[in-house]
Amino acid sequence: MFFGKELTNLDVEKIVESQSVVLGLDIGSKTLGVAVSDRRLMIATGLKTLTIKNNNFSPLLELVKEYKVGAVVFGWPVQMNGIPGEQCEKIAKTAEIISQYLHVEFFRWDERLSTCAVEQVLLSADLSRAKRSRIIDKTAAVYILQGALDAINMRRA
Length: 157
Hints:
Blueprint: E1 5-6, H1 12-17, E2 21-27, E3 31-37, E4 44-51, H2 58-67, E5 69-76, H3 86-102, E6 105-110, H4 114-124, H5 129-156
Parallel strand pairs: 1-6, 2-5, 5-6
Antiparallel strand pairs: 2-3, 3-4
């Protein structure tokens, strides 16, 4: 089964030298939150939430081409004890399909509690339930990608 690579295996210098970006994904059962890094790999920005229908990832492929994506980081929702659970299996299946479609390297990032953290931020911003539901996946993708970028930059320092 596909699990993606450890983030420590990302060739950061290759990404930076080629002026590529890293795409962040929050993979859900029906939606896909998408975020993108800047070319210096410092800041994550939310792009959109895509609806997944019949494993059609062509809108995601268009983003990969448009932004010159060099790698993808996807959320890996391990259990609190660090062991991959049932949700990881679902994510792995979808990530494998997406990776075959996009032809870029995929890296996993521990996203324990990311959706909870994002939900708390959105609640504290006093957003309506409807607005929160429209942006939570994209915001979770930003949270996942920014965490990965912060880890990458701590190693580079």
